[in-house]
Amino acid sequence: MTGPLSLAEIASAACNQPFSEQQWALRLYTAGPTPKSIAAFNNLKRICEEYMPGRYDIEVVDLMQNPRLAKEDQIVAVPTLVRKLPQPLRKIIGDLSDTERALVGLQLRPRT
Amino acid sequence: MSGESKRKTRTRAGSARAPELPELPKAPTGIDGLDEILGGGLPAGRPTLVCGSAGCGKTLLSMEFLVRGAIEFGEPGAYISFEESEAELAQNVASLGFDVESLVAEGRLAFDQVRVERQEIEETGAYDLDGLFVRLGLAIDSVGAKRVVLDTIESLFSGFSDAAVLRAELRRLFGWLKDRGVTAVITGERGAGTLTRQGLEEYVSDCVILLDHRVLDQVSTRRLRVVKYRGTSHGTNEYPFLIDEFGITVLPVTSLGLRHGASLERVSTGIPRLDAMLGGQGYFRGSSILVSGTAGSGKSSLAAHFAAAVCARGERCLYLAFEESPDQIVRNMRSIGVDLAEPMAKGLLRVEASRPTYHGLEMHLSQIHRLVDQFDPHAIVIDPISNLSTAGAALDAGATLLRAMDFFKSRGTTALLTNLTSPNNGSLEMTDLGVSSLIDTWLVLRDIEAGGERNRGLYVIKSRGMPHSNQIREFLITSDGIELQDVYVGPEGVLTGSLRAAQEARERAASLSHERDARRRARELERRRLALQGQIDALQDEIRSLEDERAVADSEYSSLTTTIEHERAAAAVRRGADATR
Hints:
The complex is a heterodimer of chains A (112) and B (581). Chain A is of the alpha+beta class. Chain A contains 4 helices and 4 strands. Chain A has helices spanning 7-14, 35-51, 67-72, 99-105; strands spanning 24-30, 56-62, 80-85, 90-93. Chain A has a 4-stranded mixed beta sheet. The longest helix of chain A has 17 residues, at 35-51. Chain B has helices at residues 2-15, 34-37, 58-72, 86-94, 100-105, 130-143, 155-159, 163-180, 272-277, 299-312, 326-334, 341-346, 361-375, 394-411, 497-575; strands at 26-27, 42-43, 47-52, 77-81, 109-113, 121-123, 147-151, 183-189, 207-216, 219-229, 238-244, 247-250, 266-267, 283-284, 288-293, 317-321, 349-353, 379-383, 414-420, 441-450, 453-463, 473-478, 481-486, 488-490, 493-495. A 9-stranded mixed beta sheet of chain B has the order 5-4-7-8-3-9-10-11-12, sandwiched between helices. In chain B, strands 17-16-18-19-15-20-21-22-23 form a 9-stranded mixed beta sheet, sandwiched between helices. In chain B, a hairpin with an 8-residue loop joins strand 10 and strand 11. Chain B is rod-shaped and about 205 Å long. The relative contact order of chain B is 0.08. Strand 4 (90-93) of chain A pairs parallel with strand 6 (121-123) of chain B, so a sheet runs across the interface.
């Protein structure tokens, strides 16, 4: 093993599952088809294709259609990306245009 | 519900004060006293900022605004909390009798807790707060809310790092709230030199209320001030307010209603002579009586007589003692012949003793309210009120007392208050708490120092609605209770005590000697009269003896004359001379 473990590797090690086989469940909360939402979706898609091809599932929730979910899932800012799997739950807000910070938020890269 | 109707009348009275102005629509808060200050309520359909430091009652005020809105004014409300959870809030206000949970269940209140935790959040580009808008919209729509509380929206600033975005979003939010036409209360923490830490006053400019919780002389007082209220005249002072089991009560003096009825019934003072001084019948039932005087002038004794008289009629009396313990009062009053132990045992008299400094003023007031509600007394004695000023600033104590007296009057409870006045500040006709104008009957006890002793004098400064004596009475405390005596008023001035007794003795002595003199003089005259009479009698005797002598002389003379005639006739016969002529 070379170098320090990434957070994601530690997390997956805790789940007794190799990081490379981890399934990702992501949920993107938007409030209607705003430019920020569209940008966020495109950015997310790009990151997923690069880091977890074939192992991710993106669910888009439009809060305008399902306002109750905003309360239930404690959404304040939009867009918000929630990493439901792998555990633990993570929240990332913004349109994900800052890829570095998005990766840190998804724990694909350690905080520098 | 009487409380409800009272509130409604008050609100009407409040808005009737300024009929010439085009009235802004108001959303009454239902909070005692606050609507009066606000000229009817918060600006309807606009946001209001309530700011203050931690623990000053922001959350409670906003919660009461919502709950009273839902219960009393039929306006459902939405509460968006950024700090406490629904359960915590419900628990916190349950002690005030607000059943938030059932209001939520009935669909009259909507609740949402917005939790923002920075460590959970990674910011990765442009975002807005549409999620908050969605939740707010949901909460409003779910109950048809007319009132919204955002408590404390500034918490967002600790959750999100992009202040510029937040500010833009807040501006949008307040605009949105106005568009929705809801009456909103936004709370904010007091910042250094600004009303709120994040300068919310910049966005919410229609109405700003500042709450303050300060400790002065180790006693805490809550105050409220309306910093601004666009388009409305409002009270600008700082008003003390209380938080008790009935919620928030703001104490604007102007809110005190003067609508209580006035009883014609009279109640005895417990001292017959004092009754006589007050038009012969004593106090009016339901009136406020102030007994003021210097230390040791007999205020408590007078109060105890009153209490005993109340109980003797079979009525209940509440005695609030701020100086002595119940046992001490009973013992001391027994020494002057007033038995308080018996009515206490019968449950007619209740003595509640507490140190004034034990609570803040607000607690005292709420304690008085609670006791009065529990015990439902016909009369109440507060001995003394002057000590209340040690529990808060004199101004607040005055306002508190005002409130208490208003409360007593509205219940028709006769209230006797004693007040310790300092002999140094010159006038006895003054109270530290400035309550004298509220008093119906005012008795003053004063020490009269003369001839090396102190005596007590009592007089009636005023007694509304009845003829009353203008005389100073000497006030004696004997083992049989209080006696009032006339003071000596004569050429020597007003005398009391042993001076009065001495003066009376002197007068008695003087009159005695006058009497002796008169009698002696009468005797002397009589003697002289008798002597003269004697002389008269002697002279009359002399006259009588002279008359006798003269009578003898007369008879001797006439017999002599007769003899001489006879002799002459006999001689003529003998000479035979021309006797026949």
